[in-house]
Design goal:
The chain is of the alpha+beta class. Helix content is about 45%, strand content about 20%. It has an eight-stranded mixed beta sheet with strand order 1-5-6-11-10-9-7-8. It has a five-stranded mixed beta sheet with strand order 13-12-14-15-16, sandwiched between helices. Strands 2-4-3 form a three-stranded antiparallel beta sheet. α1 packs antiparallel against α7.
Amino acid sequence: MQKPSLPKGTRDFGPVQMARRNYILETIKDTFKLFGYNQIETPAMENLRTLTGKYGDEGDQLLFKILNSGDFLKDVTMNDLSTGYQNTLKKVSEKGLRYDLTVPFARYVVMNRNELTFPFKRFQIQPVWRADRPQKGRYREFYQCDADVVGTDSLVCEAEIILMIRRVFEKLNLTDYSIKLNNRKILTGIAESIGEAGNEGPLCVAIDKLDKIGWEKVQEELIGRGFGLSSIEKLSPLVNLKADQDEKLAFLKNFLGSSETGLQGVKELEDAFTILESMGEDLSHVELDIMLARGLSYYTGAIFEVKVNHVSIGSVSGGGRYDNLTGGFGLPGVSGVGFSFGVDRLYDVLEELELFPAESLKSTQILLTHFDDKGFRYALGLLSKLRAVGIQAEIYPDLTKVKKQLEYATKKGIPFVGICGDQEIENSVIALKNLESGVQESFSLDELIIKLK
């Protein structure tokens, strides 16, 4: 007999885990709605041509490909097999599991552009898949909670992303975190200023690994990518810069003095900060990180990354602005900005910090118990009346000892049991027992409803 197992990088979620996940999801969903975002969904699979080329070379390697139905090898020749996987892949796979929610969203916008009202604000909460090496905080199947707005260049959107992140974290009782912020135009300007104009893509891919592998290894990678030693030497002061927000902005203006693009990136950051101030907000938890790169190739403006401090988990949120994500689908020039919460990582953070509220685990408020068939039928008559007024109620489905029914309620974390015996039936009441305190009182149905609500 085969022993059941799960694919690596995936997980089951039991009742406790689902209650906690829903606590996170409802908090995020409530925030998205508060800021005017509407929910959509897209299919789990997309055509491979929709997905490839949007995440950089390394991202393309992490796409889960779906084999064509039937004899998927029928068109493959020995020449295909001998010339590399790409020729073979085109013939055996036309679809893939989505890598994120942003590219499917761009495809959705293009296909539905005549029905949408721009600026279009959407949020999406669905699983994504990446063929990554599983480890703590990194899974092959995980949920993303995206919020994007397309059809506007306004930096109000960037400011509101900061506000949404702060609201969600406040509701989740997370207080020690950093919203790291940069701009891809600044990174383009850095490439120009160190004599590597046009190489901002490889530069971003390399420095995106700075936190993981350190500056020494990043230098080795840059050399491997063809960067000169003098360029790397010019980059070093930025890597090691220790300064506050204003000092960093001043340093960048001087360092990027010859780069019009880089200076535009600095101005966009300053404008977003000014908008926050105009809204009566401060820059708490916001940290300008000059070396924040985020390797996804479609970002063109502001980029975000959020980390909770003093936990073993990496970033829990990230995003950025893109000027032409829809261009690859035949609709050029549509600017947008968005970000995503990683629900699975947020779950691990809240679990590590023991921040899940006990009430998030509670579902059933009262279990109706009985001694015999007569009590069972009396309880059945009460069940729908309790549910009709919004009280989460259930009945023990089998005729068995009351002790077993009480054990069931205790194990499931149900706070109250309603005992339906001969005396309760005769007096048209329910004996309500608080399982935590042990106190037992009798109530009429109306009184019971008031008590439980």
